[in-house]
Amino acid sequence: MKYRKVTSLTDSEIKKIFKFVFDVDNTEIISRNKEEDTVICGFEAVWGKGSFIEDTFEISAYGIEDVGNDYPLNREQEEIIEKFLIAKGCHYLQKNNPF
């Protein structure tokens, strides 16, 4: 599989994975940094018994990082994002891979 830049992910692809991982329908911020090949994503949601949460994450070829620090990621969520990146051809291990 040919390597694909993270910034080439469509808004629809990003919204789908955020819906799957975080169970949110409103990924409101999607901003691409083509120089660093990263995507900043943010959402607001009401969970559980009315608790409000908002957070921002950075997706790169290496995975996902919580840059807003409001919602801590767990290892399962990080692995799902890594699997998503692999499936889409955006994982760092696919870059310059002769196989």
Please provide a written account of the structure.
The chain is α+β, with helices and mostly antiparallel strands. The protein contains 2 helices and 4 strands, in the order H-E-E-E-E-H. The protein has helices spanning 11-22, 75-88; strands at 27-33, 38-47, 51-60, 63-66. It is elongated and about 50 Å long. The model has no long low-confidence stretch (mean pLDDT 89).
Which key terms come to mind for this protein?
99 residues, alpha+beta, 26% helix, elongated
Question: Quick summary of this structure?
Answer:
By secondary structure, the protein is an alpha+beta fold. The chain has helices at residues 11-22, 75-88, and strands spanning 27-33, 38-47, 51-60, 63-66.
